[in-house]
């Protein structure tokens, strides 16, 4: 799962994120990437990572002002509005990316929402909202992108799932169900795409310092206690920085992982090892 705007300064450790330019990495030079949920958090960090390694990045989000703010920091990046629950709008956006940029090499299907409620307090409407964004939205993005990638015989799709798709979390029945679906979707889509030279994978982040988790913590009975508890549950003793998740996504999207497809990669500080 992805921790919000308030950092855990008292429980986290200094981050040592790699500067891809300083490291001489240019794995995406000449390539075009589309990142959804790119206005903040993991999506924004991923867009920045791909751009730093040479990609022309399209940043898509329902928060177009947020995606525009992120795009303004990146060379040649394009901000665009999209509601991933609108399959026709998603199809149109992917078509626009291909028509404008000439290709689509990488899709990072990252847009997502969460819901803090036990299963008996989750209404059908609540469940539908979570599944519409997290599952149907990701499905629509992948389907639209894969049509172009399969036709070209190359490309990489990376979903943002969650360690909640691998283990259960109390009070997160709808979210866990949606992310478990993404893990299964990853495997099925990978098998569909593999004969065409296209790879599909997902990352399963643990608690990460993003606005999505900030809202989840803010809604708890005791937010400060919740922040401390979250950090304490991590074997590494802290939450992830979005850049750390972005680094894993970049690996799966790059040619360094050309024999990797259909995997769900935990990036969770050891939570799923327990």
Q: What is the global morphology?
A: globular
Helix-residue proportion: 40-55%
Q: Give the radius of gyration.
A: 17 Å
**SSE order:** EHEHEHEHEHEHHHE
Number of helices: 8
Distance between the termini: 17 Å
- Summarize model confidence as the mean pLDDT: 91
In total, the number of strands is 7
Q: Which class best fits the helix and strand makeup?
A: alpha/beta
Q: For the largest beta sheet, what order do the strands appear in spatially?
A: 3-2-1-4-5-6-7
Which runs of at least 5 residues are low in confidence (pLDDT < 50)? 3-14
Keywords: NAD, Oxidoreductase
Region (Disordered): 1-20
Family: Belongs to the short-chain dehydrogenases/reductases (SDR) family.
GO molecular function: oxidoreductase activity
